Amino acid sequence: MTPTGLAAARKHDALPKADALAEALPWLARHRGRTVVIKFGGNAMVDDHLKAAFAEDILFLHHAGLRPVVVHGGGPQINKQLDRLGLDTHFTAGLRVTTDETMDVVRMVLAGQVQRELVGLLNRHGPHAVGMTGEDARLMTAGRAYAEIDGERVDIGRVGEIAGIDPGVVRALLDDGRIPVVSSIARSTDDGDSGVFNVNADTAAAALAAALDAEALMILTDVEGLYRDWPHSDDVISRLTATELDKLLPELASGMIPKMRGCLHAVTHGVRSARVIDGRVRHSVLLEIFTAEGIGTVVVPDDDPAEGTAP
Ligand SMILES: Nc1ncnc2c1ncn2[C@@H]1O[C@H](COP(=O)(O)OP(=O)(O)O)[C@@H](O)[C@H]1O
Ligand SMILES: CC(=O)N[C@@H](CCC(=O)OP(=O)(O)O)C(=O)O
């Protein structure tokens, strides 16, 4: 016989679930109607179950009355496609050296593959998500970025440094109840150049969060957060003020550089908190909300009143 009433609730272990939902109420109430920018990193996107759980988390936020915006990466997926085509992969100072040929592949993989897949997952239960790149409606414009190595300016091809963000199209979609899903490709600021630039997805997410005056930026990646003494220890720094992070920036390496620079940019341009969390953990976005002290590393503005508490 199928259990009913309280017996059914016990069988499905429903009480802890109800408790967890109730505990999330203050966070949800504080963030209701607020914009949250979530960056889904390429390394956290390689597993189908993780991708499906990520889409569920975003839909949860959407249905709870928040305004989530997704910016996605796709570094490993781009590497794979370049490899298939027999093209080389080179990174300088954490940025992909992007020839015109590489740029075509970057655009094809980000806009045609990774973004389409995320939009598909988000639209499984309704017409929620709309995909775009920074080229659309001139959302993102960029000039040429150069890497700096030993004080020398090094040309790294069609890599973009964001020059401007016009968030109008994203705001219009949010007002229409949609979930924007953005690929980090920008239009050239030079009207004579019909080309596009490859922008690091962390940098793009942070710039968009600032331009949208977002409440929070969340960056999902393949580590627990910012490690204090990477790669020698896995002691995660749980909270940093903007000034503390600014002092730490010169010591950072590889993929953490654009992430932490992005967090600093966000919290010094109006975003109330920026967090790096472990995207390898299923439902990490919801875990961040349902855990009183939050997970990963949070960066807050210097005037943040909450000592060591989740945003
Ligand atoms: N201090 C640090 N703490 C944690 N990870 C670090 C640190 N410094 C460098 N890293 C590296 O940064 C990587 C995350 O960046 P990246 O590979 O670009 O991720 P994503 O694809 O999610 O953008 C980690 O896997 C780790 O190898
Ligand atoms: C300039 C530059 O490096 N652009 C990145 C854009 C994608 C990205 O940032 O993806 P992840 O978030 O997965 O690293 C690239 O070509 O790989």
TrEMBL record:
<dbReference type="GO" id="GO:0005524">
    <property type="term" value="F:ATP binding"/>
</dbReference>
<dbReference type="GO" id="GO:0003991">
    <property type="term" value="F:acetylglutamate kinase activity"/>
</dbReference>
<dbReference type="InterPro" id="IPR001048">
    <property type="entry name" value="Asp/Glu/Uridylate_kinase"/>
</dbReference>
<feature type="domain" description="Aspartate/glutamate/uridylate kinase">
    <location>
        <begin position="35"/>
        <end position="278"/>
    </location>
</feature>
<comment type="function">
    <text>Catalyzes the ATP-dependent phosphorylation of N-acetyl-L-glutamate.</text>
</comment>
<comment type="pathway">
    <text>Amino-acid biosynthesis; L-arginine biosynthesis; N(2)-acetyl-L-ornithine from L-glutamate: step 2/4.</text>
</comment>
<keyword id="KW-0547">Nucleotide-binding</keyword>
<keyword id="KW-0067">ATP-binding</keyword>
<keyword id="KW-0028">Amino-acid biosynthesis</keyword>
<feature type="site" description="Transition state stabilizer">
    <location>
        <position position="259"/>
    </location>
</feature>
<protein>
    <recommendedName>
        <fullName>Acetylglutamate kinase</fullName>
        <ecNumber>2.7.2.8</ecNumber>
    </recommendedName>
</protein>
<dbReference type="InterPro" id="IPR037528">
    <property type="entry name" value="ArgB"/>
</dbReference>
<keyword id="KW-0808">Transferase</keyword>
<comment type="similarity">
    <text>Belongs to the acetylglutamate kinase family. ArgB subfamily.</text>
</comment>
<dbReference type="InterPro" id="IPR004662">
    <property type="entry name" value="AcgluKinase_fam"/>
</dbReference>
<feature type="binding site">
    <location>
        <position position="96"/>
    </location>
    <ligand>
        <name>substrate</name>
    </ligand>
</feature>
<feature type="binding site">
    <location>
        <position position="198"/>
    </location>
    <ligand>
        <name>substrate</name>
    </ligand>
</feature>
<dbReference type="GO" id="GO:0042450">
    <property type="term" value="P:L-arginine biosynthetic process via ornithine"/>
</dbReference>
<dbReference type="Pfam" id="PF00696">
    <property type="entry name" value="AA_kinase"/>
</dbReference>
<dbReference type="InterPro" id="IPR036393">
    <property type="entry name" value="AceGlu_kinase-like_sf"/>
</dbReference>
<keyword id="KW-0418">Kinase</keyword>
<dbReference type="InterPro" id="IPR001057">
    <property type="entry name" value="Glu/AcGlu_kinase"/>
</dbReference>
<feature type="site" description="Transition state stabilizer">
    <location>
        <position position="39"/>
    </location>
</feature>
<dbReference type="GO" id="GO:0005737">
    <property type="term" value="C:cytoplasm"/>
</dbReference>
<keyword id="KW-0055">Arginine biosynthesis</keyword>
<dbReference type="InterPro" id="IPR041727">
    <property type="entry name" value="NAGK-C"/>
</dbReference>
<feature type="binding site">
    <location>
        <begin position="74"/>
        <end position="75"/>
    </location>
    <ligand>
        <name>substrate</name>
    </ligand>
</feature>
<keyword id="KW-0963">Cytoplasm</keyword>
